[in-house]
Model the fold of this input.
Amino acid sequence: MSEQTKFLIFAGPRTGSTYLVDFLNAIPETRCCAELFQKDCIVFRHHEARDPRLSDIAFRDAQPLEFLALLAEEARPCHRFGCKIVGLRSFRPTPEFVFQISRDRGWKKIYLWRDDLFEQAVSFLLAARHFGEGLWERTPEARRIAISPQDLLASLHLLQREYLAIEALLASAHADDVFSLDYRDLGRPSAVGNLLRFLAVPQQLIEAATGALAPGGELEFKPGPPLATRIENFAEIRRFLLNSRYRRSIEPSG
Done:
């Protein structure tokens, strides 16, 4: 039996993690689950579990490593199996099994982040107001909101704490077992190709998958519309940010 590549995606909210799950599931012989460790639910997204224990939250919480091992075995004959964890700080404290996986060289770790924190914070506020409690998908592009500087600042700080928690966790991992990419990299064939090589995807499949990223392609990555069109009081927020360390997010480049 061929060895299975196992991976875990560590991501902050609104970093494109759902897109990445969908993208990886489109790769032959790859299974990537979605929100397996939400507090009150287990969301597989693309596949339903056959073993009833894998739908049992109590079993998952009591024996998380066995839960993942059963899922990985069910995924065979897929050569690659993984899932994502979003909102690491929501566990409080971080469960020991996550540290064990971080140190385990049998698991690949993908760190998905978003360099533009302002953009991420606005996306977070948009989704929170549109979807409320529960799982979030892509926010409709026509959705607009007015936000206060206080709410924006709270979201910016929350996101930074999420990244600090992930980075503290991955500090215990072997450097060769971690692959990091930014939200914008999801639309760059070269970056995505390197990710797939990291996951031991054959070159022929890499070429097909990265080719589908082209405009109009089946797997095209589509960032949301400009923030100036999403924030009703953009001028107010811009003035606020110009006097903060986030000013680069709203100043013209160059």
User: Anything to note?
Assistant: Residues 149-170 form the longest helix (22 residues). The domain at 5-249 is CATH 3.40.50 (Rossmann fold). The beta strands are 5-11, 30-35, 80-86, 107-113, 178-182.
